[in-house]
Write a structure and sequence with these properties.
The protein is mainly alpha-helical. The protein contains 4 helices and 2 strands.
């Protein structure tokens, strides 16, 4: 299976962990650290997106949502009644 240049580039840019070619800041885990910095108080997804959408590493709403998925999966954030907050664990 061969990937087009655009698909391969998009795939590499959405890596969860940093690699030799993807810096920590551009990995989804690195983006998650930047997002959590803005989650000091509970807030809605829309409010959080407004706060982090100008961060170059976040780049797109798709990367933002993928990062939230990862943070939720590892237990770093919780969602209750439409409000995101850092995990209490």
């Amino acid at each position: 299976m061969t990937l087009s240049t655009e698909t391969a580039s998009s795939y590499n840019y959405s890596r969860i962990l940093p690699t030799k070619h993807i810096s920590t800041g551009k990995s989804l885990l690195g983006v998650g650290a930047k997002i959590i910095e803005h989650l000091h108080d509970p807030r809605t997804v829309s409010s959080l997106w407004s706060a982090v959408s100008t961060i170059p590493e976040v780049a797109t709403f798709e990367r933002f949502v993928l990062t939230l998925d990862i943070l939720y999966a590892i237990g770093a954030i919780e969602m209750d009644a439409g409000i995101l907050r850092r995990s209490r664990r």
